[in-house]
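To: structure desk
From: M.T.
Subject: fold request, one chain
Message: Could you run this one when you get a chance? Sequence is below, nothing fancy, just the single chain.
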Amino acid sequence: MRIHKSGYLTIPIAFFILAGLLLMIYLWLPIWLFFFLLTAAIIFFTLIVRFFRNPIRAIPKEDEKLVYVPADGKVVVIEETVETEYFQQPRIQISIFMSPLNVHVNRNPVAGTVAYYKYHPGKYLVAWHPKSSTENERTTTVIKTKTSSILIRQIAGAVARRILNYNQVDTQVTQGSEMGFIKFGSRVDVFLPLDAKVQVKIGDEVKGNWDVLAQLS
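Reply: Done. Structure tokens follow.
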């Protein structure tokens, strides 16, 4: 299993903390309690390692008319809304909620030039809260394609405390390349032109780079 680079420090720290706690338990507490907590620690550590997994995901084909899913998770919002940070006009918003069990690598849904990027400090409301898109800690990235512009917003949740984004303004990104990573439960919003044909529905479980989010006109 390939591990994402953001876990290179977290995983060893978690291992040594758990090992130290288990050693103290072994020396000072009953042996039956040690084996019980050892089992729990192994399960917990396995979940931490699994959280930082980074599967290889090649998109089926590059297509400037297709918008691929940028993150694994569940589609929780599909609605027309006014995007107020960059476009200042109506857009189709599609939101994907990532649970702690999902892959948390975020990927560029289209190819193009990064026209805008901004990090916003903020609150840590639960990721599915309606106001999390505008009040939580988040990043906003706009990728300009040959025919359109797509806005992707990474949003921290109640547990997430760090958002990573590797895109830089005026650089070229390829479709399906790694955009960033959000540690623990979180959400990604995508804002599309109103004439985009949405290819998912609320409740769908989707996977980054494998599923098509929408088709551009």
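Reply (cont.): The two ends are 38 Å apart (CA to CA). Let me know if you need anything else for the meeting.
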